[in-house]
Write a structure and sequence with these properties.
binds adenosine-5'-diphosphate, 6-stranded mixed beta sheet, binds magnesium ion, 345 residues, alpha+beta, OB fold (Dihydrolipoamide Acetyltransferase, E2P), P-loop_NTPase, 5-stranded antiparallel beta sheet, single chain, Rossmann fold
């Protein structure tokens, strides 16, 4: 089946005077896996609920392909959903849960059974079809929810924090499996999470939301390395925001007149890892902490805010020797120094 693009066009939703969605526009490409990433309360669920038809927007519209679905009932939108709180029916067994969307669409019984079993095989639950929901683990329940969402072959999938209740190891396995399922089926997917790493790992593109607006839509690497706002920079990891002129260039060229972002892990303790066009930052070491995979150093530059420096444990020898209070210079390649237009430190 051919994948469809999703168009979200100037969608606005207010609860009283509180604006949950502030003219959100977004184009999702056919077959794309796009993640909405943002802190709690940024409007992610509201946007998915509106797209699925459970929340009525004040203005704006939704298109699947060139079909305007803004006013359609939820079950006529051709959208599969896996919501965090969109619970399975506990009194029905696994098979009946997965058959349910087909029964709703009046699919003949034998065909519904065949397709439900097929969907269960896709999520690796063959053999559990007669099991009660109550007898399943959290991970198995999410697989049932996935099977139920794909069983009627929707053109679009929406997933709202489907893995947030699972522990970390299982979550990572399921991230991989959801992405693989997406690649097998080619369904245009919008996935919601507040977990940066999950968004970076799973997505073709990430849309970062804050306060009912999309701040940036880009590939995971662009979002991480080239954030367009200070909010995106800081939400995506350990970002140092440096005032103009607070770093020197190694080759003695002029210092930058822009606000810069340098990620904690972009720093090196040795200038040999950095080209002549790189930057250097001189200061006093305030603290060091061992975090397993890396060391976190806190550096107080001469006349500037504290800077976080993250050194991989592979270079641990360099860090073990360091003592708080000593002078330290750290270096970063020019490619890892990113100017944030319009930002102030
Ligand atoms: P997210 O999923 O990103 O955490 P939500 O879309 O759930 O954010 O919520 C966005 C904002 O809208 C929140 O401040 C929330 O309190 C508010 N909100 C959501 N649903 C309602 C509602 N039914 N009535 C009033 N306010 C709501
Ligand atoms: Mg939510």
């Amino acid at each position: 089946m051919k994948s469809l693009p999703i168009t979200i066009d100037s969608v606005r939703k207010a609860y009283g005077s509180y604006v949950a969605l502030d003219d959100v526009s977004l184009d999702v490409r056919p077959g794309e896996f796009l993640t909405l990433l943002g802190p709690s309360g940024s409007g992610k669920t509201t946007l998915l609920m509106a797209l699925a038809g459970f929340v009525r927007p004040d203005s704006g519209k939704f298109l699947l392909g060139d079909r305007d679905i803004t006013r359609l009932a939820p079950n006529r939108r051709d959208i599969g959903i896996v919501f965090q709180n969109y619970a399975l029916f506990p009194h029905m067994n696994v098979l009946a849960n997965v058959e349910y969307p087909l029964a709703l669409r009046k699919t003949p019984k034998a065909e519904a059974r065949r397709r439900a079993l097929e969907a269960l095989a896709r999520v690796k639950l063959e053999g559990l079809s007669e099991r009660n929901i109550a007898a399943l683990s959290g991970g198995q329940r999410q697989r049932v929810a996935l099977a139920r969402a794909i069983v009627f072959e929707p053109r679009v999938m929406l997933m709202d924090e489907p893995l947030s209740a699972l522990d970390r190891n299982l979550r990572e396995t399921m991230q991989y499996e959801i992405r693989r399922l997406h690649d097998d089926l080619g369904i245009t997917t919008i996935y919601v999470t507040h977990d940066q790493r999950e968004a970076l790992t799973m997505s073709d593109r990430v849309a970062v939301m804050n306060s009912g607006r999309i701040q940036q839509i880009d590939t995971p690497q662009q979002i991480y390395d080239r954030p367009s706002t200070r909010f995106v920079a800081e939400f995506m990891g350990e970002a140092n925001i440096l005032a103009p002129g607070s770093v020197r260039t190694i080759d003695g060229g002029g210092a930058s007149r822009e606000t810069l972002m340098i990620r904690a892990e972009s720093f090196h303790l040795d200038a040999k890892f950095v080209g002549q066009d790189g930057v250097a930052l001189d200061g006093t070491l305030r603290a060091k902490a061992f975090r397993g995979e890396n060391w976190l150093l806190t550096l107080a530059p001469d006349g500037g805010q504290e800077v976080l420096v993250c050194i991989p444990s592979a270079f641990a020898g360099d860090c073990a020797e360091l003592a708080a209070g000593q002078r330290l210079t750290v270096y970063a390649s020019a490619a890892k120094v990113h100017a944030i237009p319009g930002a102030t430190a």
